[in-house]
Automatic annotation (TrEMBL):
Species of origin: Thermus thermophilus (strain SG0.5JP17-16)
Amino-acid positions noted as binding Mg(2+) 4 in the UniProt annotation, renumbered to this chain: 234
Name of the featured protein: Fructose-1,6-bisphosphate aldolase/phosphatase
Assigned EC number: 3.1.3.11, 4.1.2.13
Binding-site residues for Mg(2+) 1, renumbered to this chain: 11, 18, 51, 93
Binding site for Mg(2+) 2: 51-52, 130, 235
InterPro entries named in the record: FBPase_V, FBPase_V_sf
Pathway: Carbohydrate biosynthesis; gluconeogenesis
Entry's Gene Ontology molecular function annotations: fructose 1,6-bisphosphate 1-phosphatase activity; fructose-bisphosphate aldolase activity; magnesium ion binding
Catalytic residues, chain numbering: 11, 230, 233
Entry's Gene Ontology BP terms: gluconeogenesis
Domain free text: Consists of a single catalytic domain, but remodels its active-site architecture via a large structural change to exhibit dual activities.
């Protein structure tokens, strides 16, 4: 059976700062979506990461479907009304346009969608991050799909051995979408050359070379490209199919335990480690350390099993303790050097304006 998974995510307001959506907002969004289960949708699951609400929708309408996107838009709009009534911070933050124009691309919410023929057992996971950018997934996904030091399946399984194709987007191209497709392992150095620059290049999708099947898709929306100014971080989502012809679910653990430094956190203007957390975790008051959560599901005729929280078992408490140290170490140097983003990535204009004024004082 051909199934589409659509993961749609938006920040539509949060309690006491950029922390988490209120229970009432979440309930409203869930209510709107639930009404369509058994009609437009086969199934749905709603959760949050930090201040972002994530909708996982399964259906048979294909990607970029107008009715599915319209439903998500309606849920986010009605949720925004509740957020406004409650006086939540940044109510409607990611809904950057007033009117729905056919699909959610270019309107603000993050979109990651995949259509595939369901396998007899179809395990997959949804990754959702807060206080960071789409390129934050570059290193974990590169290591899981291309590096046998992390992904032993690349050596052990004949299904994985021919490698994976990486489709990488140039986020600096704002006029139209611009992609390159590179095969691992032959083009490994070229892939690394692009992915190291996570502000500019982001993995958009990954494909099995042996089977031509799609393994992963990442949302690549840059809010700044839509709004022309900083309105919040791009807080990406991804869908990753696992097992058999793809890396195993547990092969993604060590790559996320690395917690690489990524762009984001407070005012979207610094570098901090990407901390793996449980789903439905509020943003951290420790300088909004970037966070990623992962929920794995099984799928049967488009219906979702209960989820398993990938970063909830005891190992992750030890990982988090180390990531906290890494985060605190970076914060100790405040605004200096790599702690703050380079000029062209700074989301606030304050420093650029002061520099201009100071340049006039030089003699
Ligand atoms: P969000 O993008 O998660 O709303 O965070 C914005 C911000 O600037 C936090 O300091
Ligand atoms: Mg916010
Ligand atoms: Mg957010």
């Amino acid at each position: 059976m051909k199934v589409t998974l659509s993961v749609l995510k938006a920040d539509i307001g949060s309690v006491g700062g950029h922390t988490l959506p209120s229970r009432k907002v979440l309930a409203k969004v869930e209510e709107v979506v639930r009404e369509e289960v058994g009609r437009l949708l086969l199934d749905a699951y709603v959760f949050h990461i930090g201040d972002d609400i994530v909708l996982l929708l399964s259906h048979t309408r294909g990607v970029r479907n107008q009715e599915v996107h319209a439903l998500a838009w309606k849920a986010f709009r009605e949720g925004t009304e509740v957020a406004k009534a409650e006086g939540l911070y940044g109510a409607g933050q990611d809904l950057l346009k007033d009117a729905f124009t056919g699909n959610l691309h270019g309107l603000g919410p993050q979109v990651a969608e995949m259509e595939f023929t369901e396998r007899p057992a179809e395990p997959f996971m949804v990754l959702a991050a807060d206080k960071t950018e789409p390129g934050a997934f570059n290193l974990p996904l590169y290591l899981a799909f291309a590096d046998p030091m992390y992904s032993s399946g690349l050596l052990l399984s004949p299904e994985l051995r021919p490698g994976f194709r990486f489709r990488i987007m140039d986020l600096a191209q704002t006029e139209r979408d611009s992609y390159i497709e590179l095969d691992a392992p032959e083009r490994l150095y070229d892939i690394a050359t692009l992915l190291r620059d996570s502000h500019r290049f982001a993995i958009e999708s990954i494909w099995s070379r042996k089977h031509g099947e799609q393994a992963a898709v990442v949302s690549t929306t840059r809010l700044r490209n839509i709004a022309g100014r900083y309105v919040g971080k791009d807080d990406p989502v991804a869908i990753v199919r696992t097992q058999k012809i793809f890396p195993a679910t547990e092969e993604f653990g060590p790559v996320f335990a690395l917690a690489p430094y990524v762009a984001g956190d407070t005012r979207g203007s610094h570098h901090m480690p990407l901390m793996p957390v449980r789903a439905n975790t509020p943003a951290s008051t420790f300088f909004c350390v970037p966070m990623v959560c992962g929920l794995a599901f099984s799928l049967r005729e488009g219906r979702l099993s209960e989820p398993v929280d990938l970063f909830a078992d005891p190992v992750w408490e030890a990982v988090r303790a180390k990531v906290v140290e890494k985060a605190q170490e970076m914060r100790r140097q405040g605004f200096f050097g790599p702690a703050m983003l380079p000029m062209e990535e700074l989301e606030y204009t304050g420093i650029a304006e002061r520099l201009k004024a100071l340049e006039r004082e030089f003699s």
